[in-house]
Amino acid sequence: MSDSKEQFLNILDKNIGIIIKISRVYTRIEQDREDLINDITLELWKSFKNFNGASKISTWIYRVALNVSMNYRRNRKNSSLFSSLNDLKKENIQPWLTEQDNSPELEVLYNCIDELDEINKAIILLYLDGNSHEEISEITGISKTNTGTRISRIKEKLRSLVITKN
Q1: Of 22, 48, 67, 132, which one has the greatest count of Cβ atoms within 10 A?
Q2: Can you give the pLDDT at residue 102?
């Protein structure tokens, strides 16, 4: 195996949690999640040769994964038949895609996050993953100040959504 393939697979192995979390936020059905994970991995591989280390590896992975996920979601919405059929199915998530946590509280959180618009989903996902306002700003292209403001508003929106779902 070539050095670049080994390096890429090592990076992918260390950061697969990022891809799984993002795919879980942007999809509701196992098959869609698997497709999205494959799409993200392909785009990461295609852009790997252009990664120059100007940012952290995780920043690059978030940026690619979020862009692919938003495009995936946008394209799925344009196919209203698939979208409406997918909304009717109850998902059966394989344990390797959920990081071993199927708690009802986590499911409520994911359902509430699913109701946010695309950019707010990305911001709260990055925030919940422990990224700083500066890192979130770098990944999303939104100013650091705006990031903080959005996070506060998103938290408030999620609080109200959780209350209405319980």
Answers
A1: 22
A2: 59
CATH number at residue 29: 1.10.1740.10
Q: What pLDDT shows up at residue 74?
A: 80
Same domain flag for 54 and 133 = no
In order along the chain (166 residues), what is the average pLDDT of each group of 10 residues?
A: 88 94 89 94 95 92 95 69 36 38 73 90 90 93 93 91 77
CA distance 72 to 23: 10
- Indicate whether 66 belongs to any domain: yes
| Nearest CA among 146, 103, 147 for reference residue 124 | 147
Location of structure tokens 């059966």: 92
Residue 90 DSSP class: P
Report the C-alpha gap between 9 and 149 in whole angstroms. Answer: 37
- Structural domain boundaries enclosing 36: 1-92
Could you tell me the pTM of the whole model? 0.67
Residue 101: per-residue pLDDT: 54
- Spatial separation of the C-alpha atoms in residues 151 and 81, rounded to whole Å: 33
Do residues 113 and 158 make contact, with C-beta atoms less than 8 angstroms apart?
yes
